[in-house]
Amino acid sequence: MRAVLLTRHGGPDALEYREDVPDPEPGPGEVRIRVRAAALNNTDLWTREGAYGAPDDPDAVHGWRREAFVFPRIQGADVAGGIDAVGPGVPATRIGERVLVDPMLYDGDERALVDTDYLGSERDGGFAELVTVPAANAHAVRSDLDDAELASLPTAATTAMRMLGRAGLAAGETVLVTGASGGVGSAAVQIAKDRGAVVVAVAGAAKHEAIRALGADVVVDREADLLGALHAAGIDSVDVVADVVAGPSFGALLRALAPLGRYVVAGAIAGPVVETDLRTIYLRQLTVVGSSFGTHADFAAVVDLAARGALRPLVAGRYPLAELGRAQADFVAKGFVGKLVVLP
Amino acid sequence: MRAVLLTRHGGPDALEYREDVPDPEPGPGEVRIRVRAAALNNTDLWTREGAYGAPDDPDAVHGWRREAFVFPRIQGADVAGGIDAVGPGVPATRIGERVLVDPMLYDGDERALVDTDYLGSERDGGFAELVTVPAANAHAVRSDLDDAELASLPTAATTAMRMLGRAGLAAGETVLVTGASGGVGSAAVQIAKDRGAVVVAVAGAAKHEAIRALGADVVVDREADLLGALHAAGIDSVDVVADVVAGPSFGALLRALAPLGRYVVAGAIAGPVVETDLRTIYLRQLTVVGSSFGTHADFAAVVDLAARGALRPLVAGRYPLAELGRAQADFVAKGFVGKLVVLP
Questions:
Q1: Which residue of B has its CA nearest to A63?
Q2: For chain A, where do the domains classified as CATH 3.90.180.10 start and end?
Q3: A202 — phi, psi (to 5°)?
Q4: B56 closest CB neighbour out of A65, A255, A278
């Protein structure tokens, strides 16, 4: 089959497009899916680069588990397609089913999620013509959405769902969403609106109109002085910050929080190593919550939200599989709102 | 009356012992207490020094509210004594009552606690012969404990109670308590044991025996490599860290946490400005919880715990009021386990 192999940690040239990769066979309890769309995520690039560091060495080269990574690996967590074969123990009636894959490959409770296998990282993923997954992770979908739209949902929207869940965002509260034009951010804006929150979104100037169209009540420019911009918009403080940016903005994001406010983080595109004044955290009785991926329940909630139209898939670009490299270059350039998808 | 006045932010010489301070009169809804014991806390020193910084300037000189402080001020949050006068609206039958004061002077819910007036900071406190407080904050006590023992409880033990509550420490979980010989730490060890947790305490070598006597299951030396010492004790990770030390140890404390672990902080005696790798927080899905003071419910729980003997007051030194300066010097030297108390 055709597939893109990650051969080592490194730059774009660590990816190798091949047309002679052996077709995977579904094992016991597994299904094989003909991939019709697979979305890009930041984690693909961070894993390729080995940008996750180590607990005691921020500069160590590692995937998200911060341990030795197995190469070669086919990345691609977010897969939509059709089941074309089943392994032992899976009814053959599933062949032909249109499916969207829950990429969090864990059994058990929330604790198990933290050490989950993640499709395209601990197991070959969807940047290929075929992928195998546990049958329970391949969810039958009936939807008017096309395959690229479906594939845009799993990692980003599920991550956003868990972030807001872990932060306990309630109706009537105000949430500030950073990186609002990205996959996680654009989903967080919509999920927060669906929960009845007031949404303040931070994004680059070129994207403000698109973010407003998602339902954001206030859009703040990412280049602006955050606290000044909030005050100018009549907002003294926010109850929740949902952040995937961090870096130099981290201090101001904490200072934007109301007493008992919650800051939840699931990524740090502007830099993960930050300075913190713990006095701000304890005197204001803030909570800093780490969140990663989403539970199976979060995935189900995302699918439900999309089905009732409260979560709009935002597919900003579609690329042939062989052009994954170009897709990743566009992804890094961030000149779009939503998700980029390859179509094997 | 005799009292110690804090005249400005500064060193020990910012405190002024006087014998000509006007007696305070109880206002409407207030009682006046003849102070028989008042305990020392870190916050007295940090307020005296103005060591709380500002949200956007870690080196700014401020009290805990990080705003202009009103001088002169009589410090001293933790007061035991007897009611000797009542203001309008308070029944005279309360005169003569033996009381312990809840120093968190707020009305309302948890949100109001964050901006509470704190006895000895926003209002004159107990480093004096007489103090006035709202009648509701003066709790009648019947106890075999002496006044110094009672006075050792409010701020420290209530802070510890709220820390463990906010961290959601459950029976069977393992908690690591830093600064275990201090007022907050020694209370946290005992409260955690009462909750059925396994307690790992960090303290200086001279204090290990005393900390074990409080019920700690494992005592780790504060000079030791934390993760190495935990592993040597057969502990892979802990569910909760209750910290009042922070500083250079912060990174190792986070790394000691199990997946979904919670770090709760209520002080940072070794330094509040720390570096954080947010990847450690989000990949392990940790929570960093800020906590300060305790609610009225926490205060009631502390009094209850002490009444049934599950929380032993630890009075390590008693000083005349005029020797508050010497008491503070001993407090800073940390050559004791528990609390220091002045006896006006």
A1: B283
A2: 3-152+313-343
A3: -110, 125
A4: A255
Give B282's contacts in chain A (Cβ within 8 Å).
265-268, 290-292
What is the C-alpha separation between B195 and B185, in angstroms, rounded?
A: 15
What fold characterizes domain A156-290?
Answer: Rossmann fold (3.40.50)
Give the Å distances, CA to CA, from B292 to A252, B114, B242.
21, 8, 12
Among B66, B277, B291, select the one facing A273 at the smallest CB separation: B277
Q: Do you know the residue count of chain B?
A: 344
CATH 3.40.50.720 maps onto chain A at 156-290
Q: Within chain B, which residues score under 70 in pLDDT?
A: none
Residues of B in contact with A272 (CB under 8 A): 277-279
**In the structure encoding, which two tokens stand for residue A138, read together?**
């391949």
Cβ–Cβ below 8 Å for B292 and A285: yes
Q: Which two tokens stand for residue B66?
A: 């990080």
* pLDDT of res. B195: 98
Considering the entire predicted model, what is its pTM? 0.97
The token duo for A307 is 């089905």
Helix (H, G, I), strand (E, B) or coil at B267: coil
Question: Using CB atoms, which residue from B255, B260, B287 is nearest to A110?
Answer: B260
What are A209's two structure tokens? Answer: 């109109």
A114 vs B contacts (CB less than 8 Å): 259-260, 284-285
Q: How far does the CA of residue B210 sit from the closest CA of chain A (Å)?
A: 28
CB-CB neighbors (< 8 A) of A259 in chain B: 111, 114-115
Instruction: Answer whether A290 sits within 8 Å of B278, measured CB to CB.
Output: yes
What pLDDT is recorded for position A187? Answer: 98
Provide the ipTM. 0.96
* CATH code, residues A3-152+313-343: 3.90.180.10
Nearest CA in chain A to B58: A277
Min distance B97 CA to chain A CA atoms (Å): 33
pLDDT confidence of residue B100:
98
- Tens-binned pLDDT, residue by residue, of chain A (344 aa): 999 999 999 999 999 999 999 999 999 999 999 999 999 999 999 999 999 999 999 999 999 999 999 999 999 999 999 999 999 999 999 999 999 999 999 999 999 999 999 999 999 999 999 999 999 999 999 999 999 999 999 999 999 999 999 999 999 999 999 999 999 999 999 999 999 999 999 999 999 999 999 999 999 999 999 999 999 999 999 999 999 999 999 999 999 999 999 999 999 999 999 999 999 999 999 999 999 999 999 999 999 999 999 999 999 999 999 999 999 999 999 999 999 999 99
CB contact under 8 Å between A272 and B277, yes or no, is yes
Interface of A with B (CB under 8 A): 52-53, 55-56, 58, 64-66, 110-111, 113-115, 166, 246, 250-251, 255, 259-260, 265-268, 272-292
pLDDT of residue A247: 97
In this prediction, residue A176 carries a pLDDT of 98
What is the rounded CA–CA span in Å between residue A140 and residue A82?
A: 9
Q: At what angle do helices B324-333 and B42-49 cross, to 10 degrees?
A: 100
